[in-house]
Amino acid sequence: MSEQRLVYRLRSELDLQLALSQLPRAELLAGVGEAERTLLCTIAAELGSNMLKFAYGGELRLSRRREAGAELVEVLAEDDGPGIADVPVAVREHYSTAGTLGLGLPGVLRMADHVHIETGPGCGTSVQALTWLGERAPESRERLTCRRRSAAEPAALAMSWGSENHPCPGQSVSGDAVVFRPLPSRQLIVTVLDASGHGPRAHDLVTRLAALVADHPNPDLVPLLEALHLACRGTPGAAAGVARIDAVAGMLGYAGVGNVRALLLGPAADERAWSGVSRDGVLGDRFPTPFVQQARLSPGQVLLLYSDGVSETLRSFRGSLPGVGEAAALARQVVSQCGRGIDDAACAAVRLA
């Protein structure tokens, strides 16, 4: 038989779900038994999920061919993310750097007949999983093989950040807050919080939420939003947007609940902006499944996160965005020029160079 191929470009969880919904009915798997079909789809799901978690996406390829007199299916996952520092550790049962159960690579190693991994710090990762159809792999083939990639230390984007926060007219304190949390390996968590209501009560709640973000042991998007939701139980609730910037990988991750907005601008003034989507809901009351989105970053861009006290379109901004000058000055301009004047208004700005 001639070789058959499928290629899926994964940039979000939605891309993966669409691929997995199509794969069981793909011509490539025609004639494959239900058990083997389920096994191959599970391998694809684990490898695709790993790419989204650790490399913010990549390419998932499947091919079917004959080799050494037998028919096999290859599932190949390739990304240009930060790479795997220690493969033997990463394939251990229940090992994880993301606070998950750690079943991804160990599970693939159990299910496939042969797994080959090529990776290295800053060099991306390629995982090839081979499964023979109807027959076992040749006994001489090792279960796991690895090749370490080496490259010069990647240049990280430079980051500078600042914020502005205005209370609702007539109030002395704001129910909005901005938290910047630098992490090791040149990463930055940016969070904008908006407690329901105004005045001292909203301010007290948002102050507690800001402290939680600053100290939470798992400072990633979904765990942070889940922790904020639990902390809002029994309160009027809040909205939150959380962004994670990886300056080495050049990637942005974003997830939000409620009326907090994310906008990635530039570097050219006429370049189309990337907008992050916040799910409808209220922390502490209606918590939707977080929708994690990714975007590539480049020098000259600006990330803005702002509460609904700022006009969503920023049309009243005088001048061209992403603008020039310090991040704090840009955040101040956004709030002063685009604030709606009927609510607390906060904006976080991060400049990349």
Protein described:
The chain is an alpha+beta fold and 353 residues long. It has two domains: 4-148, 2-Layer Sandwich (Heat Shock Protein 90); 159-352, PPM-type phosphatase domain (Phosphatase 2c, domain 1), CATH 3.60.40. Helix content is 24%, strand content 33%. It starts with a strand and ends with a strand. The model is unreliable at 94-102 (pLDDT under 50).
Structural class based on helices, strands and sheet pairing: alpha+beta
Percentage of residues in strands: 25-35%
- Highest CATH level, the class of the largest domain: Alpha Beta
State the CATH superfamily name of the largest domain.
PPM-type phosphatase domain
Side-by-side strand order of the widest sheet:
1-2-3-5-4-6
Taking the alpha carbons of the first and last residues, their distance comes to 51 Å
The percentage helix is 10-25%
pLDDT averaged over residues: 90
Using the coordinates shown, work out and report the CATH topology of the largest domain.
Phosphatase 2c, domain 1
CATH architecture of the largest domain: 4-Layer Sandwich
How many domains would you count in the coordinates? 2
Give the low-pLDDT segments: 94-102
Please tell me what the overall shape is.
elongated
* SSE ordering: EHHEEHHEEEEEEHHEEEEEEEHE
Task: Give a summary of the structure in a few sentences.
The chain has 353 residues and is α+β, with helices and mostly antiparallel strands. The chain is built from seven helices and 17 strands.
Tag the structure with descriptive keywords:
353 residues, alpha+beta, Heat Shock Protein 90, Phosphatase 2c, domain 1, 2 domains, 6-stranded mixed beta sheet, 17 strands, elongated
